[in-house]
């Protein structure tokens, strides 16, 4: 079981972030807070680390895993195309609770895409999650910190023992607001398709897309 370390949301301790970055770089797993729920971060380019996340969560390998990235600039190295609709959504709704699904670059492991050829990306709005993403030179997994098919966790005290035991570090930012996860939009379609309704309202997405010349 990895240690539970309290972390301030508004000012994450650089030493704690460095410790998390070292663990991620070494192929470990870190439980991190996002805006609504706790997630499991691992190096998205390390297949052993990804398999470990799947094993801890008891998640089928046929399910893709979204990635957390540090900023908009990170997108270009991870996808083959950035449609105008994606640019608009990123400009207005990132950082935030919006995951955009792109055509994945060849460098993205099949374990992440589950063989779909697509990858979901998000810039997190929670200060700790974003600081962790910025502390490493690679994207990290953003899957929820729960056993597959169980509900998301808004308080580390509610972590399943299998998650707590499997993680190398748990960053405890206290109780989160809970609720639904991110809204997932596939921007490989024209117009983009909402795959999962989450915290970002569909109306907010449509309002942005309707202003584009091609819509």
Q: What is the SS-derived class?
A: alpha/beta
CATH topology: DHBP synthase
Number of helices in the DSSP assignment: 7
Strand percentage lies at: 15-25%
Number of strands: 11
Arrangement of strands in the largest sheet: 7-4-6-5-10-11
Top-tier CATH class:
Alpha Beta
Order of helices and strands: EHEEHEHEHEHEEHEEEH
Rg estimate, integer Å: 16 Å
Count of domains: 1
So what's the overall shape? globular
**Name given to the CATH homologous superfamily:** DHBP synthase
| Major sheet characteristics | 6 strands, mixed
Note the quaternary state here. Answer: single chain
Mean pLDDT: 96
Q: How does CATH name the architecture?
A: Alpha-Beta Complex
Helix proportion: 25-40%
Short description:
The chain has 215 residues and is α/β, with parallel strands linked by helices. Helices cover 27% and strands 19% of the residues.
